[in-house]
């Protein structure tokens, strides 16, 4: 008998990707699959690509339907997981793909999410210094946001090596699945196709404090991030272009050495060969983050670029990677670096 896992929010994009990963994972057995307004319907109506699970019926999302599992993955809108998670016992590993438990500072939470802070759980990004050990000893995991995953992986080596000033500019492009399944006019095919647009401009996007939290912890000093998200006409993928002023005397060799050292032996993050730049298409369907870095000597800035699949390393793959650690399994089991193309 495998590790029994429930997925709350199974009709959504993140829930669907969790089920795709779990269905191919040798240690997991899929238990309850739950939803909100779509409870009572067949999973196959919402996730037609998950053929072997098509006849499963979605239960309502409640402590009763989620009880009795070894692991519960939440893929609900933020604000929805906290009240239910509190009622699950310590014997259950709870992994929240939503934002509820990511931030340490309650004031930052209230400012960006306009609701009371639910609390803080260990952050599910094993690549951050010391985080793997934290995740091996926890029964609660806050999965990072998709943009913050890409930005932390692009910049933490520079912050850790103290070769970058703590003042960062990020422009990142996301595919439309990042916004979830909810219908929004700006996400209609006719609006998105053939155009790239900025949104959440001017320090108002809720992922900004999460990026600052990770980078500040690694740098050992407050790091400010000016973040501009953009929406690109693709269904999956994030390409984050991040720059920070270089500390005096930094050389291109020293910069590359810092990144090579940080990612040596990492199973899911690859520093690409010099001259090759990440593209979202290189990561689709894989739990991979691809990183490249250069020193812009004219401007005196470090330029780091990361590509991920927002639903894979950016959500479900990252969630399973962290859950593997918390369950004492090999970190890589059930996850792949082999993507799909075109
Ligand atoms: N999409 C992405 O790239 C990423 C998403 N995440 C996070 O994952 C979570 C889910 O996102 P995503 O899959 O994109 O969103 P979707 O809108 O695609 O799916 C939301 C899911 O939550 C269910 N749901 C909605 N409201 C309620 C409720 N009140 N009670 C119970 N269930 C409810 C929906 O069920 P129903 O169909 O019945 O409405 C659906 O299953 C979010 O917190 C998001 O921030 C994190 C990183 C990246
Ligand atoms: C394209 C798009 O709209 N992206 C979403 C990313 C949010 C996401 O999924 O992250 P959370 O887990 O923090 O909700 C946005 O900018 O709000």
TrEMBL record:
Subcellular location: Cytoplasm
Main localization category: cytoplasm
Biological process (GO), any one: L-arginine biosynthetic process
Gene Ontology molecular-function annotations: N-acetyl-gamma-glutamyl-phosphate reductase activity; NAD binding; NADP+ binding
GO (cellular component) term, any one: cytoplasm
Keyword Ion transport: no
Keywords per UniProt: Amino-acid biosynthesis, Arginine biosynthesis, Cytoplasm, NADP, Oxidoreductase
Domain of life, per lineage: Bacteria
Name by which UniProt lists this protein: N-acetyl-gamma-glutamyl-phosphate reductase
Top enzyme class: oxidoreductase
Keyword Oxidoreductase: yes
The encoding gene: argC
EC number: 1.2.1.38
Species assigned in the record: Actinomadura harenae
Catalytic reactions on record: N-acetyl-L-glutamate 5-semialdehyde + phosphate + NADP(+) = N-acetyl-L-glutamyl 5-phosphate + NADPH + H(+)
Functional description taken from the UniProt entry: Catalyzes the NADPH-dependent reduction of N-acetyl-5-glutamyl phosphate to yield N-acetyl-L-glutamate 5-semialdehyde.
Semialdehyde dehydrogenase NAD-binding domain sequence ranges: 4-136
């Amino acid at each position: 008998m495998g590790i029994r896992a429930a997925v709350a929010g199974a009709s959504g994009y993140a829930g669907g990707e969790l089920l795709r990963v779990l269905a191919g994972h040798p240690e997991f057995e899929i238990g309850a699959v739950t939803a909100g307004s779509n409870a009572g319907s067949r999973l196959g109506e919402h996730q037609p690509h998950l053929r072997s699970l098509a006849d499963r019926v979605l239960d309502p999302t409640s402590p009763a339907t989620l009880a009795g599992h070894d692991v519960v993955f939440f893929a609900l809108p933020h604000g929805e997981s906290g009240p239910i998670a509190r009622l699950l016992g310590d014997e259950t590993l709870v992994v929240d793909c939503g934002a509820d438990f990511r931030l340490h500072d309650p004031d930052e939470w209230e400012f960006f999410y306009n609701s009371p802070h639910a609390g803080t759980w260990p952050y599910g990004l094993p690549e951050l210094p010391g985080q793997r050990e934290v995740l091996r000893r926890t029964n609660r995991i806050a999965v990072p946001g998709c943009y913050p995953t890409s930005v932390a992986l692009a910049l933490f080596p520079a912050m850790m090596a103290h070769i970058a000033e703590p003042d960062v500019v990020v422009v990142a492009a996301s595919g439309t699945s990042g916004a979830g399944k909810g219908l929004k006019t700006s996400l209609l095919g006719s609006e998105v196709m053939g155009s790239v647009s900025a949104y959440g401009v001017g320090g108002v996007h809720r992922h900004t404090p999460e990026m600052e939290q990770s980078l500040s912890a690694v740098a050992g000093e407050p790091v400010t991030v000016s973040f501009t998200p953009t929406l690109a006409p693709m269904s999956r993928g994030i390409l984050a272009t991040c720059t920070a002023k270089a500390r005096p005397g930094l050389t291109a060799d020293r910069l590359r050495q810092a990144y090579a050292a940080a990612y040596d032996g990492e199973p899911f993050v690859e520093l690409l060969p010099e001259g090759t730049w990440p593209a979202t298409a290189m990561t689709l369907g894989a739990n991979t983050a691809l990183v490249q870095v250069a020193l812009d000597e004219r401007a005196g800035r470090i330029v780091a670029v990361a590509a991920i699949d927002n639903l894979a390393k950016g959500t479900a793959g990252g969630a399973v990677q962290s859950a593997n650690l918390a369950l004492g399994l090999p970190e890589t089991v059930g996850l792949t670096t082999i993507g799909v193309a075109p």
